[in-house]
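Throughout this chapter, every protein is written as a compact record of paired, labelled lines. An example of such a record is reproduced below:
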Amino acid sequence: MKPVTKAIFPVAGLGTRFLPATKAQPKEMLTVIDKPLIQFAVEEAIAAGVTQLIFVTGRTKRAIADHFDATPELDRLLRDKGKGDVAEQLRSIIPPNVTCIYIRQPEALGLGHAVYCAAPLVGEDEAFAVLLADDLMQGEPPVLAQMAEVHRETGKSVLAVNPVPLDETSSYGVVASDDPGEGRSAPIRDMVEKPLKGEAPSNLAVVGRYILTGDIMSILAKQEPGKGGEIQLTDAIRKQIPTTGVEAFRYRGRRYDCGSKMGYLEATMDMGLAHPEYGPALRARLQGMIGGESA
């Protein structure tokens, strides 16, 4: 089985839930402490062995390319000021063996369409990853690396799934599958995009990590619009189930839904409290604030 070396990052969305913060900057550039969401996803992909990063962008997303580009002027400035460690940190975001490619999605026609925009770069015989930066995933090993191992063992497409309350299933693609348990996978029998209340086949929701076999591109090429009039990736993956098969994988780790304000706040607080430099002071500050409220 060929290793997964390509990853697609659909980053053309407008981020309307975070307006006005996202009026002039991509939602993927919102930071948790001092790192933008898209960088967390890129680092996860690189840790899983990905060497080609494919960003499917929109016309307002130049900041993403700028973030991952080399900045010789800033590098020199930091080194002149004795901040060589910071300069090295910035330089190491994209290792020398990793390349970035940017493709424009001309119109927002759904996640499936965004993935299909990268079809010229993906062969029919090679699997690739899809990472949604809205979902900040923390795991050891990284979640995508866990999924890559499942793909190596099965040769199938692999979807990260997580149990959610039944009253929240209408916000997700939901799979019909036995619950494999944490760190394990199980074959998917069916899946539904954003099922109506009471019609979800399970409480196992697909979250923002996929490893897809290359034949998905030929399926997407013929895929009709689905829910919301968009080309749904879920609908295309569903057609793989009776042919090549698809695995639901319960990853080991934590997901923060940074597409929602509460999830973004949770990620910021949890990672702030765990920060080696700022964590103790933040914890003391929060305890003082909560103590003051209770008083």
